[in-house]
Each structure stands twice: as structure tokens, then as C-alpha cells.
Amino acid sequence: MKRDVIRKNSQDTELFPFAPIRRRFLIFCIVCVLAVLFSGACLTIRRMRQSAEAAYQSASAQISQRVGESIKLLTSLAALPEFYDPDVPWESKTAKLDEINQYFGYMFICYVDEDIEVYTLGEEAASLASREYMQTLYSTREIQVTDGFVAGADGRTLNYTVAVPLIQDDVMTGSLFCSIYFDDAVNLLRQSAAANGAEAVLIGSKGQIMSSTGGLAFGSSYTEILHEYKLVGLTTDKLETLLLARDSGSFRSLKAGNSRYTVFGPIENTNWDILVTVDFLSLFSAELPSLLLAALFQILITLILYLFVKKHIFGQLAIMENLLTSIHKMEKKLYSNAIAPESVDYEDILQMSSKGLRDELTGLATRTFFLNQLEKLLRDGNASGKLSLCFVDLDDLKLLNDTYGHQAGDSALKKIGFILRGYEKKYEGVVGRYGGDEFILILKDIDSVEELNDVLSELVERLHFTITVNGTEIPVHCSMGACVWNRKDTLKTLISKADKALYDVKRHGKGTYSLFLNGE
């Protein structure tokens, strides 16, 4: 029957339920991935504003510079007598402008006289008096930059116009203007937006769309398109008012669960406004590969940790397997006809199965094995005399290690283990290493409290000793707390009492002992 029980225990060990640990590691991996994605989402939300503002600054500056260069060129030409002097023939002016345009590459540069008639070589003069920007130019004498409009023989070429007045002796004698392909501005818009993962829209002076990197129709109202979105902290009417007032600002909007951040403001040297938008999903998608790489790295680290833990656990299980095998061998010896049970050396059992049960430094029982032995001892309750538990603590181990090195600390711990093993044998007890600098000792066959005090006094005196490190004598001492088992206390209560007694020693000075009796 006993053989069957041992065999069953061995099978149970082999079938150790590792699934809960594996499940926890899996949950940890999932949490790590979610944490990486969440941090990526937070970072994306932060970058939305940065990207939108960067794209706005870039596009606004470059388009403004392009228009400014045209204004500067026309203003320089307007300062020359050959252009503002009405006595110079228009053919000469037009020919000169054609030569200049070959270098600058505008759609065309034209001369307009005081009657708002535009001249082109080989063609008759045509009136521009009906053009609103020309009417404004001749009435205010201020430089004009038009919105985008359709021109050209194909009726599809988008362009805009920059016009400056020609003035002689405070009299307006005509004007110069250049028509510029809108593709130049569109390309600048796209380059600035693409570099920051944004979409950009160029708005004319009347709120109409002149260009869009997102494919919005030319001439449509941008505020009408915004009705498809839910604006946060702003209305379309308020936005329209801000654009007309040439104000800058930003707002957030939502559509189909996707968050968008928009920066808007005027473009210098023009009557245009630009709106640059960054949406969350586009920016997050761009960051996703690096986020997944970070998540994969987290999973890899977790997997390595998992394999390490698994190896450690199954290593401990192998030790337990060896222990069971050793016990099984001793069982054969015990129940063989050749050997009487009384003659079995039970210490042999411990020696055969001691791997994993003995502390490597001191040779004492490990904490787990000691507590199992003590639990069994309390459960049997057949100890003769008073059973006492002692907590022994090496005083100032950290200071010893820091001052003289870990070799000194190890020497002290070995010496303590040697001393405690002597008392273990003398009083038929059990001794183990409880922690780094803590030892725990069970003493049996002590008949009275007086005898126990004598033993404790003698033990604590033995635990005052010196060690030699590199020719230096180093004094070492220990503190000790003890208690007597009243045959009612549980293992937890018994250890707690001894720990309280040890704390009492530490509180009132080290290097002595304290005995817990009757709650004191």
C-alpha cells in the first residue's frame, strides 16, 4: 500500500499543473502589448498637434515666399522708367517682359496701360476693366494677389495673379501683372503636408477651396464640407468668422471614430488661408510598425523569462523526484527481510536526499525543509520536555560585508552554522537557515524555563566570537529571540512569538537574547 502511495505522489509531481503559470505569462504578454499600443496612442495624440503645426508653418512660409518673390520682381520692374513711362511704346515693354519671363518661367508677365488695356505681342489690346482685382488695383493703387481661377485655352488650368501699379509723378500710368501656375503652390502644399503626415487645404478670400492635398473639389465651400464632421470646441460659423477676420487657431474634429487636429491661419502676402489637418489613424498607422517591434521585443523578453522560470521549476521538481526515489530505496531497505526497522539509519535518508534540502553555505536545513520538519514535530506533539524555538540573527551583516567583503560575512555565517549544529545534536533538535542572516533552532528535552535560560545564555555567549580576514581579527555577535511551545500554538504563532522576542533584543541592544513568556 505504501509503495502505491509513493508511486502516486511521484506521478502527481510529474503532472505538476504548470498551466496556471503559463496562463499568467500569456496574460502578462497581452498586457505588455496593450501597454505598448496605449503608450503609442498617447504619443500619437501628442504628435498630432506637433505635426499639424509643423506642416502649417512650412506650407505657409513657402507659399508666402513664392508670392513674395513675385511681388518683389514686379515691384522692381515697376520702378524702371521703361515700364512706368507712358511715352515708351507698349511693344518695347512687352518684348522686354517676354525676355524676363523666359528666365523666371511664369505663365506670362503683362503690361497694362492707364485705361486697363492689356497688351500682348502679335495680338490686339484687350480690356481688363471688368476684372475685380484690376478695379481694386486702379482705385487703391495697392498690390493685388488674386485667388485661384481657371484660365487657359483648355479652360482647366488653375492660376493666380500678382499685380502692381505703375506710377509716375504720383500719377498711375498703368500696371504690371504676372499669372502664376497654381501647380507651384500645390506642390509646395503637398511637400509640406506629406513630410508631416498631414492634409492641407488652401482657402481663397471668399472661403472657397483653391487647392487640397485630400482631393477636395476646387471652388467648393470648406465650411460646408466640415458639416460632415463633429467639431470639438468650435462651430463652422465661428470658424468662418475667424477665417474672414484673418485669425489663427486650431480645433479638433471627429468622424467615424477618427480624431483629427487642424491648425489654420492666414498666408502672408495674400488674402488666402491655409488649414492643415492631421488625423489619428494615419499617424498611428505610421507608428504601428515601430510599436509592434517594441511589443515583439517585450514578448521576447517575457518568453525568455518564462523559459527561465519553467526550467527552474522543473529543476526543483526533479529534485523532488530524486527525493521520492531516495525514500523509495530506503523503504526497500526498511521492509526487506534482511534488515530490521530498528537498525535503519534515518540520517542516511537525509543524506541521500539532501540535495536541495541543505543550505550550500552553512550545511543547515533550508527554510522550506526546516518548516516542514517543525510542522510535523508540532503535529505529532510527542516531544518530551519543553520544546523551544530560537531565532538567531547575525548582527550587522551588511556592515560586515561592506567593510570587509562578502568573504567575512560568509565566514561568520559558516561559524554560526557550526555552533548551532552542535546544539542541534546535543538537544536532539533541528536547525535551519531561515534567511540571509537569520537562523532558526528547535531545542528539545529541556525540562524547565530555568534550564532553558541557562542554555540560551550559554548559546548567546558562544555566538560571540571572532573571525580572521586578511590577518585582521573581527568581532562578531548575534541576537536571539526564543519562546516555549505550549502545545496549543500553531507554527505561525510559535514563529511570531520568537520573532517578537528577537525584536525586543534589537530594540534594547544587540548581542543578547530575550525569551517570550506569557505574552511578555
Architecture overview:
- Strands 1, 2, 3, 4, 5, 6 and 7 form a 7-stranded antiparallel β-sheet that branches.
- Helix 12 packs across helix 13.
- Helix content is 51%, strand content 23%.
- It has 520 residues and is of the alpha+beta class.
- It has helices at residues 2-14, 19-78, 81-84, 90-104, 132-140, 182-195, 222-225, 236-244, 280-335, 346-352, 367-380, 397-404, 406-426, 449-462, 491-508; strands spanning 108-113, 117-120, 123-127, 144-145, 149-151, 157-168, 171-181, 199-203, 209-212, 230-232, 249-255, 258-266, 273-279, 386-394, 430-433, 438-446, 465-469, 472-476, 478-484, 513-516.
- It is built from 15 helices and 20 strands.
Would you kindly provide a brief summary of this structure?
The chain is rod-shaped and about 135 Å long.
How many helices?
Answer: 15
Kindly estimate the percentage of residues that lie in beta strands according to DSSP: 15-25%
Rg, please? Answer: 47 Å
Q: What coarse outline follows from CA principal-axis ratios?
A: rod-shaped
Number of strands: 20
Q: Helix coverage percent of residues?
A: 40-55%
Mean pLDDT: 84
Oligomeric grouping of the chains: single chain
Q: How does the helix and strand content classify structurally?
A: alpha+beta
**Distance N terminus to C terminus?**
48 Å
Largest β sheet strand count, sense and barrel closure:
7 strands, antiparallel
Which runs of at least 5 residues are low in confidence (pLDDT < 50)? 1-15, 337-341
